[in-house]
Hints:
By secondary structure, this protein is an all-alpha fold. It is built from two helices and no strands. It has helices at about 10-25, 35-55. About 15% of the residues are buried. The model has no long low-confidence stretch (mean pLDDT about 85).
Amino acid sequence: TTVIVDTLGAGDAFATAVMLTLLGHGWSRTERPATSLLREAGTFGASIAADVCALQGAFGYGAVLEDSQQ
């Protein structure tokens, strides 16, 4: 179970993970990917998106940084 902290970037992470999975298996726009490959890509995309949601300010925006002077 993932504790949702911030959803910033979750959609981008999902789309990127799906495309990387498809392209990594040799998919091209001229062919329809197999259902099993789409399932694998979607599952991986959801996993990566969940990981991103567990981070405050996924791209560093709004992240609280510790004072290095302490």
